[in-house]
Amino acid sequence: MTGVRRVLRNSPALLRLLAALAFALGTGLAGVAAAQTDGYKIGVIHVERIMQESAAAKTAHDRIEKAFEGRNADITRMEQDQRTAAMQLEKDSATLSPDERAARERAVELRGREVQRLRQQFGEDLHARQFEELDKLKARLDQVLTRYAKANDFDLILQDALWVGLSVDITDDVIKALDAN
Question: Average pLDDT for residues 20-49, to the nearest whole number?
Fold first, then answer.
């Protein structure tokens, strides 16, 4: 905590900015006061909106969907085959010998476990790939955002604030910059 106090004590401009932001948030005038405070230029982005609306995010989603659609179809077909085999066993169980019934029950149970294992592995692989694509997109967003901030002389860009006035919301401009890149 003493490090923070030292930084604030040695930086009166930062202290004024933080005080102005605290005042603005406390009075509900964040959009008006945060846009230009003592010569500081501040913007706010909504990362979730960027991740949903940008062409780059949609392309990443489509790429993942295409990569996994064949495997998902295979597992879905295997699940249907397993259900069909279970129904057939139930239908035939009255006419089967006890040994034959037990053997087919084991086979259906093994098939069910294998399909369940494949579905779980599929989910884990899909989740890992989604995080991989998300990391790539966030790294790209960071680069675009840094260039945008420098080009437009921003001193501070925040993300996902509770309430944002239109004068400081730069999400649409960042989406355009990300899509143009």
Answer: 62
44 shares a domain with 67: no
**pLDDT reported for residue 83:** 94
Residues in the chain: 181
CATH code: domain of residue 170: 3.30.910
- Alpha-carbon torsion 118, 120, 124, 126, what sign? positive
Same domain, 42 and 10: yes
Strands (E) across the chain are located at: 36-37, 40-45, 156-159
| End-to-end CA gap in the chain | 40
Q: Which residue range forms the structural domain that includes residue 98? A: 58-136
pLDDT of residue 137: 94
**What integer pLDDT is reported at residue 165 of this predicted model?**
86
* Residue 40, strand partner residues: 37
CA atoms within 13 A on the CB side of 170: 22
Q: How many domains does the chain have?
A: 2
